[in-house]
Fold these 3 entries.
Entry 1:
Amino acid sequence: MKYLICTILFANILFANSTMCYKNKITDVSTVENEKFDGGECNSTYSILDMKKSGWNISDIKISQKNDLFNFIYILKKDTKVKAISNGKVDYAKLSKIIKEDKQKQEDKIAIKNGKRIYNKNCKLCHGLKAELKPQNTSLAINTFNLEQLQDTMRAYTWNEQDKGFAFVMKPYAEVTTPTDIQNIFKYLKTINK
Amino acid sequence: MTKMIKMSLVAAVAVAGFTTSASAMDTSYTGKLYVENHATTVKDTQTVTGYDIDFDVKATTKINDNFTAIVGIQADADRKDDKSAKGKEATVDKNGAIVVTDKKEEVTGSAVTMDKANLNYANNGFTLKFGRQGINTPTTDGETGEGVLATYAVAKGITLAAAHFGNNKIADTDAHALAVLGSVSGVNFQLWNVGVAGVVENNTISASTTVEGIALGARYAMSDFDTAGVADGKTAIVTVGGKVSDVSLSFAYLVNGSGNAAFTTDASSANTAELVKFSAQNTADVKAFIIGASAPVSDTMSASLKYGSADVGSASISEVVAQLNNNFAKNLTGSVRYAAYSGLTSASDQTQMRADLKYSF
């Protein structure tokens, strides 16, 4: 009885997230875990080794072969230890919150990666490595912007409502940057300017 | 067996997932609704009242990291009630008979146009816009055209631009633009060559910098008109701007050549100057200045006052414009404006009142 009470008080619920990643037409099986996998949390961005480093464990692997090419499907699981037992009952609200937070962290990770890619491709040359520059000395450093300022400014460029002399240069980039891109860029800039 | 079934299901989901992500499009919609009510009184007697309504909406679809497609629709409606339109007017009907009717007091109009339809590419400092778009140069102010615009950032702060339009609203001929825009040692500069075949060739140079918080700018534009007997045009503009406490101050001085002014397609173009009725556009032998001040009145409201005066040959014009702006909500703004214009002759003197609201989404 004493043992049971201790278990209820201190036990962790082991909650498992799972995801599935795949890669087709692999020629060299020995280096498969270095390849960027598609689907699920791998999202054409992470290799199996990357996933392992992020705390994912391999749960299952399916391999099929056609001619000399191999198709791989990995089932990966990640355990989240949750103190979600209170007075002998599972605290589902707490459990739900932690699951949501975990999902948000994964989404943020992908958003930051996408934001970094777009920023480095289209913004870095004029705005600087950490968005610290003031292009043409007329614009503000965008690392000081909050998300709303960034969204409003980009929108203004696309509608010809913002011009300090060099809107002609900025407008083409504003027009290819979607609201989702802007959010991702903002998250990336916050990460590198902490 | 169970495992194999599960794995087949997993594989099916994988294929479905891949297909979905390949075809999924990120489309966003933005737009604005502008409603204006105005009253213009010419020489204290003839009053024209009316409204203008503009509704613009634009859909932007991200095709992938490098390409987007943009389609924009513009819908305009306006109405003018001309109280001075008293009396009769005569027209000829299809049978050749003369018909006398009352003059119309009310004139209405509306139009829906697709003002944007273009594909955009942007990657590592190179951008390309292909299709229907606004043509933004110092001589034009967003006139619609169909063609291609490319920009390339050759180095930090230096951008090259080239554009060609086969169909445009400037003239029924081809138009082109070449430009270098950049910044060297704190001085921003722009060099432009804009041509409209058979009409004009325009070259513009502008420079600007900021010294001790004071913004200084200079612009010189030259136009070589193709029409025989039309003198070359020249326009020079210097600007100064700064802030004293919360008050923003601005000053602009413009000189048009004695034979002709540099070519512009719109009074809002960068190579000229305007207020409400006051304009220095495409007029020879003009010396003009515009002085302005603006300041916040409250957290949501600001006020501005502008005065413009110009000598046109031996005559002069002037205008004073007062405006109150208010932000009613993040995406809802409004203004009230009063303008009093004194023209070349007393018959062209006029005052204008305007109230407007703009909603953006």
Entry 2:
Amino acid sequence: MKGMKGTATWFMGCLVLAAWLIAGYPGQAAAADPLKVGVVLPLTGKLAKFGEIEQKSFLIAAEEINAAGGINGRPVQLIIEDTTGKPDVGRSAIEKLISKDQVLVVGGGYSSSVTWASVAVAQQRKVPFLVNTGSADNITEQGWEYIFRLNPPVSEYPQALHSFLKEKAQVKTVAILHENTLFGQSGSKEFMEQCKDFGLEVLMKEGYEAGAVDFKPLLVKVKAQDPDLVYMISYVMDAALLMRQAKELNLNPRLFVGGGAGFTLPEFQANAGEASEFVFSATLWTPSVPYPGAREYYEKFLDKYGTPTEYHGAEAYAAMYVIADALKRAATFTPEGVRAALAETDMMTVFGPVKFISYGKMTQQNKLPTFLVQWSQGKLETVWPKEVATAEPVYPFPRWDKR
Amino acid sequence: MKRFVPPLLLVLLIFFPLLVQDSYYQHLMILVLMWVAIGTGWNVIAGYTGQVSFGDAAFFGTGAYTAGLFVHKLGLSAWWAMGFGGIAAMAVAFPFGWICFRLRGAYFALASLALNEVMRHIATIWEPLTGGMVGLLIMQSFVSKIPYYYIALGMAVVSVLSVQFIMASKWGYYFVSIREDQDAAESLGIDTHFYKMCSLNIAAFLTGTAGALYMNYMGFIDPEVVFSLHDISIMAILVGIVGGVGTLYGPVVGAFVMVAVHEFFRTGFFGLFKGLAALTGSPAVETAAKFIMEAHVLGFGVLVVIVILILPNGIVGDWSRITGLFVWTRQRKMPG
Amino acid sequence: MDVFLQTLVAGILKGGLYGLIGMGMSLIMGVMGIINLAHGQLMMVAMYITFVCFTYLGLDPYAALLITMPALFLLGALIQRYALNPLMEVESLLPENQVLMTVGIGMVLTEIARFIFSSDYKSVQTAYSSSSFFLGGISFSVALTAAFFIALLFTGFMFWFLLKTDLGRAIRATAQDKDAALLMGVDAKRITILTFGIGSALVAAAGTLLMPIYYLFPDIGSPFTRKAFVITILGGLGSTVGAIFGGLTLGLAEAFGATYIGMAFDDMIGLLIFILVLLFLPSGFKRLTKI
């Protein structure tokens, strides 16, 4: 029994010690001077690459802002938390930022489902959240006054495509392929609605599990339907495989259009190779957009980090400036004060003009035009609208077997 | 003396949120308590009855979705699902067990894995009902964590006590006899199929209730989160095995250890390394901190491997082996 | 008709590769009775080795087979020897500790890969990666066709190996009845190590062959592990020929499911078949063949 007693005492002693340690663990001392801005991004996990680009952009922007005197002399302090790309971790991350770090405002929000889970927390805790990437429409359709969105919702991604179709290309039938994620499901649903409004017949709309090896069964169905336009919403690797296998099957619609995300990344071209040629995609930003600072931001990023940036980075960079602007105008340095200031935002950023308005079902949503790009000889050229085009669009799609 | 540990632990747990105000740690403890319930449930079917389930997420997710759907489709408060979530999970467990209990050992485990995946796919594809990948979002009833903590504590306590009660009864004997030798039990006249079903349904009920709590607490679920093979099913197994299968308090210890270790690694020893790096200004420590945080899953995996090698019966099961390490001086002095 | 034929071809070709993936697991499960949840991760390791060989050594994946297979054989043998065999000696309530160990190992392998290579998607672009040839209007992917035939080759080889060689027969004996085998003088421990090694080498081949037509990232393992189960159960534990049939069945089911029901369902179809086979044909196709 002696051994038992020793065990029990030891065990309880450990428990007490643990409790004392936990209770007494020093929290982060809040410095009086800097203004705290929280950011939630996927820094590890599958989406880490994009999370990194946004993180770096936030950092560059914050540096510039602080170098120029900060917010009336007070520096901005970024506290960046990793959501690992999962909604529940995202919620814990934003909770930590709000309750432990007591940030004034939150930025970031990469994946739609993680963002969706996080904004609910921000709204409930009454801390403003400026979403800069999460694109599912429902994020700004709830009437939540603490949630603002800088980037267009996924339903608006194909705006440039619409005007292109109206003025240049003549298509009658569409096939829609999308991955089964929030991004894919909501984007495809919206696009299908829009096709109906435009009088385009949707021959098929099908989802797939991201990461599939073989899309041939799906593509062979598409080929049998012979649509004029094939619209795909995918992340980069599925996009590459889709195009490669479309080439293998000799599937030749008049237009291949990607719904942004995967189709505009350099990885797409690297992995699809020749199969990426002449593929269009909707996009939200390219370095050649007519907004002040866009090209400079692109060069700065490339200089500092040695890798190119893309529209996610631009969103993050612009978001930082919007936040800083709101902080400058805030009547009080409280979440409510920052929220009120954000609501009055009216400024120009590298991502475009920013003004939060309500339209359709959405509130506090920034309205921006989108662009159409096309892969041409391994480079991504802006082809529509004409005013910003760097190259002429190639249409209809040159047949695989005739190249 | 050992008998006083559980009640003392309970007292500590009851007073915990009053001692520790930091909502971050409260959050962790709520997770721990939730895993106590899940782990205890798993332990019933796997540890005591010997039918290892690899698909407990199927029950967890069902409970969670029940709660979410109560709000979205029926307009009821999600708290109703604390009872109904468990029942819904049983509705899944019943046909599953009925069909699949003819399978033994590894085959049953695989079938449960398949069940997990099937449920996940259903939740993803059946958009009109579940919202698909949009998931279900509800507004939480309380902003403070404290009510959730006590509810979770209640759930955990009820789980452990009810399992204790069951295992002390005749059913407990039947379960263990099935684990030890199913055929012998059958030949002794024990209706193994019936008792396996009972065991599974108990497990499903507890796990489903935990899922309902999760929905209430987190406010957001989607198929990837609550039907996750890795984060839920396998975690449940780890909680059971690391804590100690077939023991009552194994899952309790296991839950605490697994959540703590997971978070420990994720935050780089609770920011200890980061703090050290800031203090010493040493780039080496800084890199170590970054490394640990980025490789947190790696650390976790390595730990799992080591624990299984050294403590195959879990912490509670192999308790004597652990204490042996600390009490060795005392024993050395004893003659013989 | 074209849609049907194309789907058929797609299913068969994919099935060959699946068979190769399942063969390794079938052997391991048949002989040791452990569920190797790290199977997909072993394939991942082989794929990373293939990637390195291609990118830094300029080796074509088919040539890299000669490197990945022995490498994974070694890795598998080491895992069995140092991580799994010790568990068999230990007294524990549940034999499932071994499975948990494979989970841990899988996690470790994935994270090490992530640490070395980051979560970025990697791929290998060979001349034949996207090329296909047409037979009567039906497209055949070059890489997948080659993989199919290589898989058949391996199946034939394993068939011969298990049937005709002493080592092969020792393995089958251990799979059928370990105690009897021990009594017959078979060194069960050595057999388990070799079997895990062979199983790993087979899945390594599958990974290397998959590389040109797919892509690679650290988390790629899990879905393939799951498919391996289905194939193993379909084909029957320990039966390598069964594995090919299992693979073909799964490949065809997925392809036809994708075409005629919807691609979102192809995983579900596999799972349903899995459950059906578990219930009604638990020893799999093995019943129909000798081995």
Entry 3:
Amino acid sequence: MTELTDLSLAAIRDGVAAGDFTATEVAGAFNAAVAEANPALNAFIVTTPDHALAAAARVDAARAAGQPLGPLAGVPIGMKDLFATRGVQTTAASHILEGFVPPYESTVSQRLWDAGAGMLGKLNLDQFAMGSSNETSAFGNVISPWRATGDTAQRAPGGSSGGSSAAVAARIVAAATGTDTGGSIRQPAAFTGITGIKPTYGRCSRWGIVAFASSLDQAGPMARDVTDCAIMLEAMAGFDPKDSTSLDLPVPAWSAALSDNLAGVRVGIPREYRLDGMDADVAASWEAGIAWLKDAGASVVDISLPHTKYALPTYYIIAPAEASSNLARYDGVRYGLRDLPDGASLQDMYAATRAAGFGAEVKRRILIGTYVLSAGFYDAYYTQAQKVRTLIARDFEQAFAQVDVILTPTAPTSAFVLGEKSADPLEMYLNDVFSVPASLAGLPAMSVPAGLDRHGLPLGLHLIGRPFDEQGVLNAGLAIERRAGFAARPDKWW
Amino acid sequence: MSVAPADVAKIASLARIRLSDQEVAAMVPELNGILAWVEQLGEVDVTGVAPMTAVIPNSLRLRDDVVGADPLTGGNVRDAVLANAPAAEHGFFGVPKVIE
């Protein structure tokens, strides 16, 4: 029999329901895989084997009693450590929240537990989800399970959901939650040869997710294939009165409606994404993606998104501005770290606490955000950026009058070596060049594995859809998945 | 626009983040690099364009204006609210003395 940890989320759920194996056996197998791999990969900040076993025991008892099982019954997952989990430390990978134990559960994680999933642990990430390589975590780098051919250099799992991507790729979780502000689900998925979708802004409740940039933050699933993503997203999404921007819409049965027949579907190829000096393998995988979608019955249309080059600078005003406001709550009074030097005043305590608690990238973004929101600069930076954001969203609106889904590469390169880009913040920011525009427009977007580059490292293809059209994105993703036949996985060196 | 060390110190003070002189000096070129890069937005013609307020049209809701609408924060949960406080004293958040 195949190892339980090699099974997809759907196969685990169905196998538990059919009685081929018990949820407890599945949880035990994944707990063992986590214990074996985590010292090498550092994908988890804390592991919670008891949570996984308790959830599994409930599922096994429910099955024995003949009760109906949830859509994720018996599936052990990893939870990005940005989701508040009752009774389990939640840090956002920052020293300032070290030891914080929420007395409440985030809406998305609660929905997953209600669906029958269990938690293997809290996954590492870039600090406050600010980063593209997982190198800003206060709990150490996550090491990608992938290595280039003939090379043992440690590579980035992408970021900010780098613990999630590494754990799914290493087969030590069946699936994981991610969050995406400018690409934090899609870029790590591309770097590690897995699948991840950011739904339309408002699909998944933000309640109980540590806030980074509230107008951009969206949760989504990261899993081994498109079907698993669809199943998990159905469990995560849904209206929540506790989030003022939650969409009051029914959750479609995405997994039941999956189809790779794209007859009549028009796919847009944005010419502005063809960057000068584009990596040859990335360009080739984009061409392959176009051919696969045509093979599935789609027609291909060249489109223009004229404000694409302004998306990254727009993002790097809006996201830090929102972050500087959201992170004002970390003051050393109500929760988290407090640094109180001898004789310090209240103001000194705030400044000392935040100096000691925040990492360098978080400080950098808070300072940028404070500057662009400050008197005299607000209009020139922040208001101008929000106007350009309107134009970027309008570009997409106009494109979607002509096409149904847009295909681009997910990231400009495959996974880089840790440390290679960390010296220059701007160079790191450029990693999100293809993912940020969809975030600014609140659109559903996903990354699916396309193949390996000349170094033997995964490349992803990126699909962007109309607002609320996760189905169109998932179906195009499925068409690519079935034709790419991506079966590569990292060698187990840990 | 570019920032000088005094500007960075001012921003850090507004953001309540203590920075040493060396940290300010290191931050100046980093912030200036980022600011010079985002300045390209100035070349976009935004005549008649309204700033984005919501990417997905949505109407904001108000909950009922009643005590205890949210059982997590609605009252009688003092111990839970204080559970993570670095210095909870006598049922309050403790802070350094703010009045003489």
